[in-house]
């Protein structure tokens, strides 16, 4: 079971499953129409699992008896808000009870209830993980009944970032990823949709952005319709899509269509003096054309993404880029009270104002607060990608935080430098973040209770310099699952004990093999022998504290 | 083009390809029947590429003219040995010439000649890499003609090791891997077929080995028929299959069926005192039953693998295991002139004798020579998996060497420890071996000319603790290609200049995308932007020598 429920009592009976298990929501008729559609979709996916999954676990064994009772149906109730609204405050809790006895002659009925349809979705996903196929009996069973599960998320924001600019992913790959995310109870897809390398979004206001800036203007783009498909597919699975249009840095791709508003474009060969990675280029903060561009683009992009948040980027601004730009230096000469930092402030103020005018709250990378110390309003959410002391700093200032340290939750690290002509180069964020390290990350470590409340959650991140459709699934799974459990279940169990990789490994192995059975290329964590023999490949006690 | 030919002259004409390009071998009728079959298979695969590949390169651009000449046919000649014999001495060289002009009204004809059918296979593979599909013209072209290629391998033994014991791979995955190996001009599949974790080989003499020691006795095995399929498929592609039955260590899986001949099986929890990895277990060197087992097993296994070499293993023997075994200590008490080391010598002598009695030459891991200093005959080939000073030591002693250092050519490293309950554990051979590091490995570094001649080649290795069918393809490619070029083309070009990653990157990117077009999940090395803009993502000069 992954992520593990907050509270879970179970037993030792094995139930059979009625082949056409009845699934009924008692009060779905009173729900909003879209809520009804979401329920229908979830019910169909649930049935698919019942019929097709046939998952045989390598390490979960159970007894089958000829006298096993049969689970006859599942009764569902939405106890609270029946709208389809999904946001940071959505109640995602649920209760699932699967009895193993019933009054004489009464059919066995499981019950799932939740405040919202999104709690129901989580409950159904949990249910699918209780089902195991028996190799011997060639039938589906529900072992370890009865089950009484009371479950709710530790963090409200449980995200996964995918970068679709360094390399492009077809829509079908994103949809498949969203499916796997929902099984893992992720609820935010942070879509790092554009960056310096390519601009795959086909804007209707500025079609030249992708005509010139996408890797391929016909096949490697996301149209308005594609984005609608992705956003709706995600919503159907309880996932919010938050787009990031990173600015003012990481914007070289705009220069293919609007060279005038990009400063220091593609400086070679010393790109490193102007940018964290090639190609260099930042938006010009002193040109009216820049702001005209923003004032046209942002209303369009915010209208395509219904979520109340919008990620404005803001990482890795390099002042050298502006210092090397004539129009910027001329502007500063004319405005002696201004500085490069005040130009950044001006740019960010205008950008955030536009976002707010379009009814969104901005999210920003930590640099705007930690490095540039901009006095942004306290409703801005700050995403911290470096060390925990920065989470402390930012929450102390009163901001809400999304946590996801490069030292723990960057899924791309450890595969060698992607920069060319660099035989000795490893990746800057070496080593690889193995699932055990990911599991050891505590987003609220060292914070006061007040500060900890401001950590709304976290994100695990796949930057795509060395990932694309060929390998992203193995990069993501099951390591992103490791982060998912920390975000859903929390670092501590209901008795206040720290969750350990020793306890988690067997469950994660089981979950990995179940994902593989669902057609997902989730990587193996161990030799199958270790999976089949839990604990036998653990670090020997003598090596645990060698000194 | 990958691996790059030893000598390659080309031009700037773009040829069209006659849709049903004639392919004819002038003297195939005089060849051995199996040679004829190999040729037919190769011709069919070549035609498949002509019809179906449609590879559009992201970084190779060429001019198409309405007046382009059309290549009409390919004429092939085997100039030497027409047998289908494939071994360490097989001549794999070939010459390919593709003209861009012809006498008036004469059709354009390409010529491929080679001493053996296996040279012909390499030439055909090279030819397929000259073909590019035009996105605009929707047609196949052969740019940069004329081509005059004279090519031969730098090393005779160009291997890839895959471990099918830690995790199992279905036959279809091995066949697919062999295909990709042949495109990369690998000629040895070192099949690390059994190990401590599982025994997938279904012996007919000892069926209980896989009935009890395979992960699944029905679905996760290799039958005699499977092995025949794999060996023949490989032979058809110019690849020798050398099996490794690692002994006396790494043999725990035998204990499931024959516990009496395995010492210190699965010691827990301090397995590390008895074995390099769990589960512990070594063959018992003092029991007649051990030798009876060998004398039955080895004739069978050697008969299933036609190659003249047989890998006997021999790595990571831990004497503590025998020291903890009553029968061994009792034997030593009765034989005061013996020692643990002399018992090892006795075991290896018997093992190697059996291999030789079955007409094979043993290959051994370096430990038998470097650590245990056994006086093995000089025809034994020694595989060195550690540092270059050990290659020096072993060649100084007069042995032939297969090189493949864990510091350079282990494809599994850098993905975190697979041992459980180990949150801080990275992989022992961190970091990840990125393609640039792999490319920088010189198997004959620091050797005299005489010593260097004894290095018959090398192998890149994928141990499968964290690899299985879900991810092995991305682990292998394109990094194994990096080793393949060093093995085929050598570290130095025909003018004696060191091959550089700077020169190689564009070609490797092109080759990676071609492998993807062939349906292989080869990983991306860079953002597509870097692929499309060669050199622009190179390490800036200022960072090259920072001090």
TrEMBL record, chains A, B:
Beta-hexosaminidase eukaryotic type N-terminal domain location: 1-130
Domain of life: Eukaryota
A single GO molecular function term of this UniProt record: beta-N-acetylhexosaminidase activity
Keywords: Glycoprotein, Glycosidase, Hydrolase, Signal
Coiled-coil blocks: none
Catalytic activity: Hydrolysis of terminal non-reducing N-acetyl-D-hexosamine residues in N-acetyl-beta-D-hexosaminides
A GO cellular-component term linked to this record: membrane
Keyword Coiled coil (UniProt): no
This enzyme's EC code(s): 3.2.1.52
Enzyme class: hydrolase
One Pfam family per UniProt: Glyco_hydro_20
Regions crossing the membrane: none
A GO biological process held by the record: carbohydrate metabolic process
Similarity comment text for this entry: Belongs to the glycosyl hydrolase 20 family.
UniProt-recorded name of the protein: Beta-hexosaminidase
């Amino acid at each position: 079971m992954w992520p593990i429920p907050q509270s879970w009592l179970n037993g030792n009976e094995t139930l059979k499953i009625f082949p056409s298990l009845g699934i009924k929501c008692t009060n779905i008729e009173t729900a909003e129409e879209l809520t009804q559609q979401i329920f229908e979709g979830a019910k169909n996916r649930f049935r698919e699992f019942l019929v097709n999954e046939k998952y045989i676990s390598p390490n979960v064994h159970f007894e089958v008896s000829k006298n096993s009772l049969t689970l006859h149906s599942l009764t569902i109730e939405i106890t609270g808000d029946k709208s389809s609204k999904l946001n940071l405050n959505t109640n995602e809790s649920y209760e699932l009870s699967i009895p193993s006895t019933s009054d004489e002659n009464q059919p066995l009925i499981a019950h799932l209830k939740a405040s919202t349809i999104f709690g129901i979705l989580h409950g159904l996903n949990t249910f699918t993980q209780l089902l195991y196929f028996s190799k011997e009996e060639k039938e589906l069973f529900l072992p370890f009944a009865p089950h009484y599960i009371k479950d709710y998320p530790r963090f409200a924001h449980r995200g996964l970032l995918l970068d679709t600019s360094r390399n492009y992913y077809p829509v079908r790959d994103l949809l498949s990823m969203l499916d796997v995310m929902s099984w893992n109870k992720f609820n935010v897809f942070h879509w790092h949709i554009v960056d310096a390398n390519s601009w795959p979004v086909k804007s209707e206001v500025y079609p030249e952005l992708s005509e010139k800036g996408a890797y391929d203007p016909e096949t490697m783009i996301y149209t308005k319709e594609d984005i609608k498909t992705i956003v709706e597919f995600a919503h159907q699975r309880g996932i919010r899509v938050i787009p990031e249009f990173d600015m003012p840095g990481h914007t070289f791709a705009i220069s293919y269509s609007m060279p005038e508003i990009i400063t220091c474009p593609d400086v070679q060969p010393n790109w490193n003096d102007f940018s964290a990675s090639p190609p260099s280029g930042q938006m010009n903060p002193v040109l009216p054309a820049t702001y005209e561009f923003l004032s046209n683009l942002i209303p369009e992009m915010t209208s395509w993404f219904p979520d109340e948040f919008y990620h404005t980027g803001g990482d890795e601004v390099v002042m050298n880029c502006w210092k090397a730009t004539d129009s910027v230096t001329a502007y500063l000469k004319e405005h002696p009270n201004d500085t490069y930092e005040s130009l950044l402030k001006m740019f960010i103020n205008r950008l955030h104002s536009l976002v707010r005018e379009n009814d969104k709250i901005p999210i920003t990378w930590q640099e705007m607060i930690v490095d540039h110390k901009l006095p942004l309003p306290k409703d801005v959410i700050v995403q911290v990608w470096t060390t925990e002391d920065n989470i402390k700093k930012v929450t102390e200032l009163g901001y809400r935080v999304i946590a996801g340290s490069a030292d723990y939750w960057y899924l791309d690290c450890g595969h060698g430098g992607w920069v060319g002509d660099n035989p000795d180069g490893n990746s800057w964020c070496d080593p690889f973040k193995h699932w055990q390290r990911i599991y050891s990350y505590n987003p609220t470590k060292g914070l006061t209770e007040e500060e900890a409340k401001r950590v709304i959650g976290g994100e695990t991140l796949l930057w795509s310099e060395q990932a694309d459709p060929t390998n992203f699934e193995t990069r993501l799974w099951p390591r992103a699952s490791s982060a998912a459990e920390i975000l859903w279940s929390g670092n501590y169990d209901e008795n206040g004990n720290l969750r350990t990789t020793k306890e988690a490994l067997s469950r994660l192995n089981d979950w990995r093999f179940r994902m593989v059975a669902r057609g997902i290329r989730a990587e193996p964590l161990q030799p199958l022998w270790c999976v089949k023999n839990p604990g036998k490949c653990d670090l020997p006690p003598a090596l645990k504290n060698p000194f």
